[in-house]
Specification:
single chain; alpha/beta; 32 strands
């Protein structure tokens, strides 16, 4: 068995080996991919996709009649391939010690892989003939879009090279847009969703110069004949999961240095060639060395189901290349429980049925339940669209589905036929794509936030926006993503829905409860019926629950601060004095932070924000004072200090230490700085001279940072008679 990462690679590898043997495909060498198989009784080598071999391994852990498994292109680190390697090693350790496992890679660190396979695993290095490849960097012009940039680079390559061009683009959408800019040229697409005939067309040499626009499928495992130049956009699609916002899917990322080198090597397979890299040369050194393993970044619901079917839901005991992140695995398990595929005892019968479909568990659930509601084929058509949203020519599911039914593309039609055979249901009764979408992603049911707005709130709590105006109050969102730095998501594919459909598709998200919360600056008490985070119906509550009310008021105080209470100048100064004593003397003087004050509040009489303003902050502080130490507050942290002139001046406790603002003539007579807090803390005197008085000698005054106020030097002024002046408050 030879496991390839993609269907196209599996077919191409089988065809190449059969060609070398001088046999048709299906003889000694055959292949099997989803929806297509060519083998016979004479087949000794079967090339399959990693996903298909996973299914076989789950059904037959001993892999009866299989002598050797060869895992090709391990460096790509696809999720299915990493999981397959872990399960094969487990099967070999417990069931098939004679099973031979080979792993091949063009770029990966061989010693790390050999260590994973076993300490005595030999490393065999095969060097093929490689022709020199010249590298040219073609950075984009300012403001130039990707398709413009790539098309310009293609024209440059055509003018400088002979032979066919292989152009690497991140996805099918980019292939379409670049094709439109290369009209009049011999352009051929190459990606995994094309029909076998169309793929074969791109892999055959032609009489005229060809431009093959390909996704990552052409990076490895196959050779596009006649290629003498490669144009590399430097981008790829990688799976990313945003568990907090409930968004996941493929995002466009920069390729690694290893992938860029492998793409460049396509130009030197048959003769010397050139690679045109669509980025500045200085960025080459900033590329990551190897691709990020999908297991670190992808949504792991499907992997969690496979592990549960294997009997180790948490993946413990398996030899992993990279351990699945615990948080992502837990999120996947939570999704499986919501789908009924997993319970406290492990995988359920429904879970095994979903796994057999060869789909993401969400789509498997949508197919099973959608077939019962609408019939097998209507459900299969929508699921086939969701499984490969690149075939959608519109962001509206209904429009995209009508176009698919009209155009009948081979890949979509073949998948619809396969899925229809896997499920049973009543004869097609009605067409309701939104229901199937909602069954797959109930937490993505979305309601418009404001009349006429393009912004919607999904049941999962994430806000999303549509590209253009939409007259539907509800949406069933199939695909949404989020641009870096933005809190809300962008709807890429959705179906029009309504509240009745939402409640029918997601009954588990329905809830009804009394809510007392702090919102928009005050208490909101209401009885609410919700679909997840979406409010369906609400009505005010006249007498809210006291405990809920206290929690909501406390939340409001934490959010907006204790400034909501009634603060007088005396209360503010008392807090400063208590804070000073807590900082310098510690126990028993209490902390007077916002949290501490809130903990000591009596909120039994408060029902709204205005009631908080009637609570005396000074009274709360008084209740916090320790007894009998409270009697010493004025002694240890006096509100005012008497100066030699006889005036009593207020001490300022807002600075790092206590400060006494005093006119200089009132301080004359002090021989030392006054101290408070049981004599532990000196009071800083901020002195100002008498009006129109001449400056004394520098022996008496010290300038403090060039400010207008001066610091007194009492020892130098002891003989000067103090005179009262206007007190500084």
């Amino acid at each position: 068995m030879v496991a390839e990462p993609r269907r196209l690679a599996a077919r191409a590898a089988a065809a190449r080996m059969s060609e070398l043997l001088g046999e048709p495909v299906g003889g000694t060498v055959g292949y099997a991919v989803r929806g297509d198989r060519r083998t016979s009784k004479q087949t000794r080598v079967e090339v399959v996709t990693s996903g298909l071999l996973l299914r076989r391994l789950q059904h037959d852990p001993e892999l009866a009649n299989v002598d050797t498994v060869l895992l090709d292109e391990c460096h790509e680190r696809h999720l299915d391939a990493d999981l397959l390697l872990a399960l094969l090693l487990d099967a070999r350790a417990g069931l098939r010690p004679d099973l031979k496992i080979l792993a091949t890679s063009a770029t990966v660190a061989a010693q790390r892989l050999a260590q994973l396979l076993g300490d005595d695993t030999p490393v065999i290095e095969a060097k093929a003939r490689i022709f020199p490849v010249e590298t040219t960097y073609v950075p984009p012009a300012r403001g130039e879009r990707l398709e413009q940039h790539v098309a310009r680079t293609v024209h440059k390559a055509l003018s400088e090279t002979d032979g066919d061009l292989l152009v690497f683009l991140p996805g099918v959408g980019e292939i379409r847009r670049v094709t439109e800019r290369l009209k009049g040229l011999n352009v051929l697409p190459l990606h995994g969703r094309l029909s076998a005939k169309a793929q074969d067309e791109a892999l055959k040499p032609g009489p005229h110069q060809r431009i093959v626009l390909a996704t990552a499928v052409a990076e490895s495992s196959l050779t596009v004949p006649g290629v003498r130049a490669v144009v590399d956009a430097g981008l790829a699609r990688s799976p990313r999961a945003d568990h907090r916002r409930g968004l996941s899917g493929l995002v466009t990322t920069r390729v690694s240095a290893a992938v860029a080198d492998q793409r460049a090597g396509r130009a030197g397979r048959e003769a010397p060639g050139r690679v045109y890299r669509c980025w500045p040369e200085h960025e080459q050194a900033t590329l990551p060395r190897y691709p990020e393993p999908e297991i670190r970044t992808a949504e792991l619901t499907r992997l969690a189901l496979e592990l549960a079917c294997w009997g180790t839901p948490d993946g413990s005991g398996l030899a992993w290349w990279d351990q699945p992140p615990a948080g992502a695995l837990a999120a996947g398990q939570s999704t499986l429980k919501a789908l009924g595929a997993l319970d406290a005892n492990g995988v359920t019968d429904r879970g095994r049925r979903i796994a057999e479909l060869g789909l993401h568990p969400r789509l498997g659930r949508a197919l099973l339940d959608g077939a019962q509601e609408l019939g097998a084929r209507p459900a299969a058509e929508v699921v086939a669209l969701l499984d490969d949203d690149s075939v959608a020519r519109s962001s509206d599911v209904d429009t995209a589905l009508r176009q698919l039914r009209q155009d009948r593309p081979h890949s979509w039609q073949r998948e619809v036929q396969r899925l229809t055979k896997l499920v049973t249901g009543p004869d097609a009764t009605r067409d309701d794509p939104a229901l199937v979408v909602a069954l797959a992603h109930p937490e993505r049911l979305a309601k418009r936030r404001e009349p006429g707005s393009r912004s919607y709130l999904m049941a999962g709590g994430t806000a999303v926006e549509t590209d253009g105006p939409n007259d539907s109050e509800w949406l069933a969102v199939a695909v949404a993503d989020r641009e870096p730095g933005r809190a809300h998501g962008k709807v890429r594919l959705a179906a029009r829905a309504d509240q009745e459909l939402a409640e029918r598709a997601a009954p588990a998200l329905l809830s009804e409860a009394d809510e007392v919360i702090w919102a928009t600056g005050d208490i909101v008490a209401r009885h609410v019926r919700r679909l997840g985070s979406i409010v369906l119906v609400e009505r005010p509550i006249a007498r809210p629950d006291p405990d809920q009310l206290r929690e909501a008021l406390t939340a409001g105080l934490h959010r907006e601060g204790v400034g909501l209470l009634r603060w007088t100048q005396d209360a503010t100064r008392q807090r400063q004095r208590m804070e000073f004593l807590h900082a310098h003397l510690g126990d028993p003087w209490p902390e007077v932070s916002d949290d501490a004050i809130i903990r000591n509040l009596d909120l039994s009489a408060a029902r709204k924000r205005a009631d908080l303003a009637n609570i005396s902050a000074q009274h709360v502080l008084q209740t916090m004072l320790p007894w009998p130490a409270a009697a010493r507050l004025d002694e240890l942290a006096p509100d005012r200090l008497e100066v030699p002139s006889g005036s009593k001046i207020r001490v300022d406790y807002t600075a790092e230490g206590p400060v006494l603002p005093v006119k200089v003539q009132e301080a004359f007579g002090w021989t030392e700085t006054p101290r408070i807090a049981d004599g532990r803390v000196p009071v800083l005197l901020h002195c100002s001279p008498p009006p129109d008085a001449p400056w004394p000698s520098p022996a008496i005054w010290r300038v403090s940072g060039g400010r207008a106020t001066r610091r007194c030097a009492p020892s130098c002024a002891a003989a000067i008679r103090s005179t009262p002046g206007r007190r500084i408050r």
